[in-house]
Amino acid sequence: LQDEERRRKQQLEEIRKREAEERVKQQQEEERRWREEERAKREAEEKRRQEEEYYTRLEVERRRQHEEAERKLLTPDEPAGFNSYTGNSTGVVGSGEVYKDLRDKWTRSQEQENSIPSDAPESLTFKERQRLFSQGKEVSNKVKASRKLMELENELNTKQ
């Protein structure tokens, strides 16, 4: 009877010990999960904050560019008079400076685009070269050689 009672006590102790170990493991696992969740939350918050800063910087730059473009459109090249009643430029200002109408500037730039430049193609702007190319005209007088051809020429030159 005493042996059986000792055995039962021993079994109870082992069961209690296992249960205690199990509780410790569960607590450790819960703490690990909690730390992992907190880390993930911090990372997500940091990423969100960085994205917010990025888009804020983009928006600030977009506004700056918009304001600059608006300022360029609204500011004439030289100080000038403008009659808001008729919507026309007055032409001459009291200081003797003449108002340059931006519409005139635009038509002049269109005329330049439509004229055929007589300069060498290399001195043309990209837009002009692109326009000439689309019209099927020669945009460069440089001869382009393939890399392989250049290598062969170099080999021949070094062997001589």
Automatic annotation (TrEMBL):
Under InterPro entries, the record lists: Afadin
Query: Which residue ranges have biased composition labelled Polar residues?
Result: 83-92
Q: Where is this region: Disordered?
A: 1-97, 106-125
Any one GO MF term held by the record is: cell adhesion molecule binding
Locations of Basic and acidic residues compositional bias?
Answer: 1-75
Q: Which Gene Ontology cellular component terms are annotated?
A: adherens junction
Gene Ontology biological process terms from the UniProt entry: regulation of protein localization
Read off the PANTHER family from this record: AFADIN
Protein name in the entry: Myeloid/lymphoid or mixed-lineage leukemia (Trithorax homolog), translocated to, 4
The organism named in the record is Nothobranchius kuhntae (Beira killifish)
Q: What is the lineage of its organism?
A: Eukaryota, Metazoa, Chordata, Craniata, Vertebrata
